[in-house]
Predict the structure.
Amino acid sequence: MRVNRIALNGFRNYEWETADFAPGTNVICGANAQGKTNLLEAVYMLSCGRSFRTRYDRELLGFGYSEGQILAEIFSHDRDQTVDIRLRAGQAKRITVNGVKKTAGELAGAVNVVLFCPDDLNLIKEGAAVRRRLMDNAISQIRPRYAEILTEFNRLYEHKTRILRDWREKPSLLDTLDEFSDGMARSSAQLIRYRAAYAARLNQAAPPIHREFSGKGEELAIAYQTVSTVKDPCASAREIYYDICEHQEAHRQAELDSAQCLTGAHKDDLDIQINGRSARSFASQGQTRTAALSMKLAEREILHAESGEMPILLLDDVLSELDQKRQEFVLNRIGGGQTLITCCEDAEISQRTGGRVLLVEKGRIRG
Ligand code: ATP
Ligand code: MG
């Protein structure tokens, strides 16, 4: 799987520009604020129709533009394909693949990416939201149905949160509370099954990478955590649903008192341990970075195994954040697929990777 060419019109700081990528490693270099991350963001959008930096499509339009476009020639599933994303101010974006209209969720089949940016190095120490996002991004790419359920879950969650927040001023809101709780329990049950299965895969794929990477035989272990009453997160959706309802009933009053949703997949997490101890509480800075990198490289392996194609690896600015040993480890691992790496210092990294160099300057790209 690879992106051969991308044309950006009115996207971020690209007025009208194209870039050609090599099938292997591409080093995107340039000074700060020239458009390196914007270029990676455009490639990322091909995988899911949205940005990793903003929820708002209007921010993606070039300043002063009312229309924007990302047009890409990709090679995936043994054929050349064209992905076209049109952004329009005040309107929904329009996505087509080979001229056929698609939803953002349906893009997943065409292009898969694994993104790695400096924030991901904090994956272990940060709050649970980043680890849920890690699962959500990966699973959405291999199970398009998951993205649909997640969207529905988020809609219900937001609505229920509004009810819990406003019911004192408007008691009639409580009439629909149970309906939303039930919907959340149903969609949670489905999300939980997918997440439990993905966490199990991650717990197979990441520890060997971490062991090799740490060079000290450190044992990484990843366990999925969800609603406490769920006895088996791999059970049928029906069984999980009943377990969640039990938690929901026990917490109904507490939800009304605290004005917060207390039951559901929005509180899920991954418990990450190194040598049997919570990494979040005890791991050193270097250990957490190693574990985060191992989890991301494992994601690439899992997507590869699931789809039969190596996802495109996007490394935004991470190499400069890593010490020499970790840089080498990453660079040695990226073979076998297409990789886009951004960095500020050009010559050195491009020499080490032997990759193609693209120079970005003020929204222009020189290949
Ligand atoms: P760094 O090395 O600092 O990470 P970068 O090359 O990755 O820099 P980008 O994040 O790609 O920089 O941003 C390049 C420029 O694009 C910035 O100056 C930013 O202000 C500008 N920019 C961001 N959004 C838009 C937009 N919607 N329209 C026009 N320009 C934008
Ligand atoms: Mg950047």
Observations:
- DSSP finds ten helices and 15 strands in the chain.
- The two ends are 21 Å apart (CA to CA).
